[in-house]
Structures are given as structure tokens and as C-alpha cells.
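Protocol step 4 of 6: structure prediction from sequence.
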Amino acid sequence: MSKIWTTRAARLNHGAHKMKQKDRLEFSRRIFGNAGVAVCVLLTTTVLLMSSAHAEKGEDAVETLKAMSDYIAGQKTLSVTFDSDVEVITSDLQKLQFTSSGQVQLSRPDKLRATRTGGYTDVEIVFDGKTLTVNGKDKNIFAQLDSPGSVDQLIGLLRDKYAVAAPGGDLLLSRSFDEMMMDVIDAKDVGRGVIDGVECEHLAFRNVDTDWQIWIELGARPVPHKYVITSKAVTGMPQYTLRIKEWRTDVPADAFAFKSPQGAQKVALEALADTDEVPQGTATTGEKK
């Protein structure tokens, strides 16, 4: 008897699902009475409200990200310090994390200085609008490349041709919103979070291969304080985490002039290939933007 009732109920439910709203209410009245109508209305309303709330939160997340992008792009100069964590998955599926610290200084449109110090490398990038210098401070060697253009063009060149990633480079772009929203398939405003005592809006976005989250300061200064990228296409889903410690807008006038260290040797750029936060050959890492 119970099997027959289960089969019949499943068929009724399937038929009800295909009905229009008006027909569904009449169906509920015939089968369950007026109480069934009330339940049907309640469930339908709940689903609609949940869908509407999800859409609104997605719109809020996009608007907050756009406000952050516009604010940062509007800063003529900026200086930030950061900590970064890179996770790797070893060949025996152990997850390891490597940590570095550094600073980024920027003067729009064409000057950049970025330093990163970790357990395996101490590297500095200096760009004065005409020449790019990559300084391997731990090895006392440096390389230079003629590369006139903007900071946006430099970040693209480093990433695409030389596989060198400026820390959170996409956050510095003049059109960072367009770059970050490329291929996004889902956006959420998760709620509030506190980073180093600062209240932030917590946003979450999804691409096909990556999930990424960002925490943006509330109020008149919508700057990011934390940025996490999860590589879903990699076994173990390693993450790259950027924690931004300090935001300032004062940059020394001579910040973008490279001075060769005492005894430093000039080499070809290829000789500075090992400048990542992780030793070469360790394993697969989380994606960095």
C-alpha cells in the first residue's frame, strides 16, 4: 500500500510542477483543501523571494566591486604592504603553504615598484615608464628590459610573456573591474567580515576553473584587505591568499629610480626565472591573478 501511495504521490507532484500558478492552486484545493492552497502559496512566495534575494545580493556584490575598482583607479599614487600565502599540492597529495611579504608602490600611469621577500627568494621589480628592472636581491643580480608604456601594459607583459606576477596585479589595473569580472558566472555578497580590525564587505565570485573572494573596506575608502583565489581544476584545490596590511597614497619621489646595489651583476632576464614564492619543481600551486 505504501509503495502504491508513494508512486501516486510522485506522479501528482510531477504533474503539479508542470502546471501554471492558477492551475496549481486549484489542484492543491482539490487534493488537500484550503490548507493546501495556503501551503502552495507560501512555498511559491518563498521560492520567489529567495530567487529575488539571491539576485539582489549578486547585484550588490558587483556594485561593491565596481566601487572598489573606481576608487583604486582614481588614486594617482598608492603604496601598500602585504602578506601572501601560496598553497601547493605535492606529488603524494600533501598540501603545503609558502608565505611571503612585500610592498607595492604605484604612480599612474607609468611607474611601479614591487618587492617580495620569502623563504626562497627576495625579488624587486622597478619600472620608470621606460625601463623594467628585475632585481634578484638575494643573488645580487639584476636584469633590465626596455619596455616603454603604462603600468597596465607592463603587468600584461610580465604575466603573459615572462610568467611574472605582480602581487594582486589585477587590483592595480586602471580597468580592474573589467579584468576581474571576465568569465564570472556567479556573484554573491556573503555579508560582513573583519580583517585586522577593519569591517569589510565579503564578496564571493565564481569562474569555471576558479572561485575567488575579496573583502572590501566599508565606508568612504573601499579598498581591499583580503583576496583569496581557489583553483578548482587542480586536485586538492590549492589557494592563493593576499592580505593587504596598509594602504597609503604618499610615495617618495625617488621610489621608481633603480640604483644598482654594490657589486651587483647585470644578467639576462632569463637568469632570473626562479623568482616565484615557491621553489621550482615543488608541485602545483593555486592560481595567482
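Step 5 (inspection) to follow. The chain has a mean pLDDT of 82.
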